Amino acid sequence: MSKKILKALMQLFAIISPFEIIVDREQQDQERAERRRAVKIFLERLLNQEQVDSFLAVFDGYYEKYIQELQVRLDQAGEMTQEQVEKLVRRIYARRAVKVLTICDDINMELDQGQKIIFLFQLLEFIKGESGKPGKQELAYVDTVADTFLLPKNDYQLARSFVMSDQKLRDASGFLSVNNQKEQEPGKRTKHLYRSHLKGEIRVIFIKSTGQYFIKYIGLEEVYMNGQLLISQQSYPFTSGSSIRSEKMEPLYYSDVVSAFVKDEVSSKIVFEARSIIYK
């Protein structure tokens, strides 16, 4: 990603942080630390340490700016009833939504559709946070981003479910489950691959509109993708040529995943038949 896009993403991360931390002061430090860790993890996938520190400072600046803006509005309002506070919050959310749209318009000009999908996954991971329970308004902001990017509704809903669900994954043909169970449950649409020595579960999602795959490991084992340790319950792009390995598990290759999704689409065999051939 270009510096311009990364800067825009830092601003977007700051904007969609929850408003409730202003009302409850005790949550501010904890929330800030959690959000900063999420941003750092994202940046470390892309940049060296010097660049990570640089863009973390950009995020810190935007985050502090929006926190102070919110605090000033509340201080100016003085003593308010609960109803008045709720109205003020709605107005603040509306203004933030306009800023989100402006940033998305800029990003739209820079990224292709596949990059937008990766961008969206990062936003979903960010609002998921360590609690795994994003607020309704945070989800609404990401919904706005998806609409602005003109992402197919089914792909977006599938991606949102994939990122947010760390327990039982809903049954859908766009998902693949890799585990140590030899047989898939009868009647399930979710695709399945068997790995006898895998402790936990590797989940895969296929984004049909762009032909992209993303993976997520759920478990306590050390599992690696292309030599990179996977953080449990976090999603990663799974690109051509990639492989996933652990100490005892048979490797999971990109081709294995593609085959699992493609085989169900092949409904009939291809038969080659030769007729009227004469040998001289």
Percent of residues in beta strands? 5-15%
Low-confidence regions: none
Describe the main β-sheet briefly: 5 strands, mixed
Termini separation comes to 63 Å
Q: Output the number of helix runs.
A: 9
Shape: elongated
Helix/strand structural class: alpha+beta
Radius of gyration: 23 Å
Order of helices and strands: HHHHHHHHEEEEEEEEEH
Counted beta strands: 9
Strand arrangement, largest sheet?
Answer: 2-1-3-4-7
Task: Summarize model confidence as the mean pLDDT.
Answer: 86
Portion in helices: 40-55%
Describe the structure.
The protein is elongated. Helix content is 50%, strand content 13%. The protein has helices at 3-15, 20-23, 28-44, 49-77, 82-108, 113-128, 136-148, 153-164, 254-262, and strands at residues 175-179, 191-194, 201-207, 212-218, 224-225, 228-229, 235-238, 243-245, 252-253. A hairpin with a 4-residue loop joins β3 (201-207) and β4. The chain contains nine helices and nine strands. The model has no long low-confidence stretch (mean pLDDT 86). The chain has a five-stranded mixed β-sheet with strand order 2-1-3-4-7, sandwiched between helices. A four-stranded antiparallel β-sheet has the order 6-5-8-9. α6 packs parallel to α8 (153-164). The longest helix is centred in the first third of the chain and has 29 residues, at 49-77. The chain is an alpha+beta fold.
